[in-house]
Q: What sequence folds into this?
């Protein structure tokens, strides 16, 4: 399903003499440039997800089995997740005054085991993927898992861990006992990056998932963050009636032993529209002397733009790839809109896949 650019708003000739139309410059139909292109078109499915750590106590990963079966039938070549890449983590670590000292989890234990700092581990992982054999040995998988942990790519390390036979999920080949305990902990962590994306990637025989989140443009530079947060939260509180009803429906479905109906709901276009409106419209209309809610919207857009660019980068050298982007449901309307404007890209209808 292609997502076209919003058509420009027509302006009366008399008004053009006074001020330019808001959309006067958006007249080139970029969505038509790939008509008649040679080669296969990429198929991108954006799955809006709930954050599994918000589900009621007692969550059983088996509740995702029905969803996983439908996603496996889509047969993605690439799976992306909403977390920061090792490259972004390394950037933040080199600029703690700007991004904070705890921007990403520590890789100290993995560095001690492998002898690789984050840049070296990222380079080593990339080199391994390029020469990865069709039938890797358990030792190769253990070694790569350790390197990926040093590269701050925990979800991909877990993909390797899951593809080891149960008896081979042990220390060895630079994967020491502390790292084994970390991987075992990921198995019980309620996070869609592990319980959904990594499990799916391992099931399909993929070697990794791709981190596409980005927070480098939404860390708002204000004198005091507390009034900023208060202003944004006050704006959201002023327009959340429809969202509260939507969340009530989601909460009821989140207690089920099969979460497929929940995912059908959160990916429903009407529910996505409610999320998008509740997220942005009150902020745009808020009466804030410092314009803090408007700053938040700008940061939100920057984050989504950079995430979409990161998704695009994962299949830059793979025209015609089938891509699954797993992202918080509130991001999905922006992903669908902007990914659908890219050349040679078709956005797949999530509702059809989840039937």
A:
């Amino acid at each position: 399903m292609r997502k076209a650019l919003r058509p420009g708003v027509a302006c009366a000739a008399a008004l053009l003499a006074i001020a330019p139309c808001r959309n006067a410059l958006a007249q080139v139909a970029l969505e038509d440039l790939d008509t008649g292109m040679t080669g296969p078109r990429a198929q991108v499915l954006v799955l809006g997800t709930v954050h599994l750590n918000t589900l009621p106590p007692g969550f059983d990963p088996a509740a995702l089995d029905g969803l996983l079966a439908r996603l496996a039938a889509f047969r993605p070549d690439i799976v992306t997740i909403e977390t920061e890449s090792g490259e972004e983590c390394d950037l933040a670590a080199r600029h703690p005054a700007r991004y904070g000292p705890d921007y990403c989890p520590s890789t100290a234990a993995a560095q001690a085991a492998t002898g690789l700092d984050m840049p070296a581990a990222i380079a080593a992982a990339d080199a391994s993927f390029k020469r990865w054999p069709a039938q890797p040995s358990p030792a190769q998988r253990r070694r790569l898992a350790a390197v990926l942990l040093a590269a701050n790519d925990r979800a991909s390390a877990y993909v390797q861990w899951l593809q080891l036979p149960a008896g081979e999920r042990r220390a060895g080949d630079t994967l020491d006992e502390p790292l084994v305990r970390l991987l075992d902990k990921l198995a019980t962590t309620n996070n869609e990056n592990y319980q959904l994306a990594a499990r799916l990637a391992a099931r399909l025989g993929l070697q990794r998932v791709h981190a596409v989140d980005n927070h480098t443009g939404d860390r708002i530079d204000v004198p005091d963050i507390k009034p900023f947060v208060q202003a944004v939260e006050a704006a959201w509180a002023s327009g959340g009636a429809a969202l509260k009803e939507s969340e009530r429906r989601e909460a009821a479905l989140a207690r089920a032993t099969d979460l497929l109906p929940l995912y059908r709901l959160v990916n429903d276009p009407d529910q996505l529209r409610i999320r998008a409106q509740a997220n942005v419209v009150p902020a745009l209309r808020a009466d804030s002397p410092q314009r803090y809610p408007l700053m938040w919207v700008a940061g939100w857009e920057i984050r989504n733009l950079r995430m979409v660019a990161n998704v695009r980068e994962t299949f830059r050298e793979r025209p015609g790839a089938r891509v699954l982007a797993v992202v918080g449901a509130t991001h999905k309307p922006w992903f669908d809109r902007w990914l659908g404007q890219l050349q040679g890209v078709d956005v797949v209808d999530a509702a059809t896949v989840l039937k």
Remarks:
- The beta strands are 42-49, 78-84, 210-213, 322-328, 345-348.
